Amino acid sequence: MKSVRVLLVHDQSLVRQGLSLLLESSGEIAVAAAAGDGREAVRLVRKHKPDIIVIGVAMPELQGLLVARQLRDAFPHLNIVMLLMLSVPDHLCQLLAGQALGCIARPGSATDLIEAVQAAFEGRPHPSIIPCPAASQHGFSPHASNRANPLHVLSGREREVLRLVVSGRASKEIAGRLRIATSTVDTYRGRIMNKFGLDSLAALIKFALEHGVAPCQ
Question: Which residues span the domain enclosing 86?
């Protein structure tokens, strides 16, 4: 039986090593490479051509979510599994799955993780996996237009900036896309954070996801 070739992505070396040993203990999964960030992951995908990518998403930092966006943009047809490293509420798991970045896996044991990766590779369901639906064609999900949602206080430009931030775009890239100055992007982002009392990029992304913001395609 052919081994499933995996690329592991996590920002902590110790976690990468542990996951690698765990997955390879199955005898049916081979870790082709491991990356600590999105840029390295893109390079390693091109070099090793893995069958599947497993990304550790540590909450509340959400850096793994940004890496998943980078990889989905670069390799839209590659199978991605986002592994939730900490306990996350069900509603947030559903929101993450709704971003169409890949499957969400919440394994309860080492065996669950191995079986979930194999199931994702084979395209079959598994109890630990929340499947990813088709990407939304709109910037905000239907409930986000409700006036009860706090995002209604944002201007149209602020919403554009927020969507691009959630998509993992840097200020310079957002500025080029919207044809505005990088400093203006930073001003918009700071204004959005001030409106909702947020003090970090991770908090902003988490807040946006919880209130229905969908990333740009």
Answer: 4-130
Kindly report, residue by residue over 86-141, the tens digit of the pLDDT: 666 666 666 666 666 778 888 888 888 899 888 888 877 888 887 665 433 334 44
Tokens of 86: 């900490």
**Contact residues for 207 (Cβ-Cβ < 8 A; gap 6+):** 196, 198
Cβ neighbours for 138, distance < 8 A, ≥ 6 positions apart: 214
What pTM was estimated for this model as a whole? Answer: 0.59
Which phi and psi (to 5°) does residue 100 adopt?
60, 35
Q: What is the pLDDT of residue 70?
A: 81
- Report whether 84 contacts 59 (CB < 8 A): yes
The beta-carbon contacts of 118-121 under 8 Å, at least 24 apart in sequence, are: 118/4, 118/26, 118/28, 118/29, 120/52, 120/79, 120/81, 121/4, 121/51, 121/52, 121/79
32's tokens: 């082709």
164-175 mean pLDDT:
88
Q: What is the CATH number of the domain that holds 44?
A: 3.40.50.2300
Q: Do 147 and 89 share a structural domain?
A: no
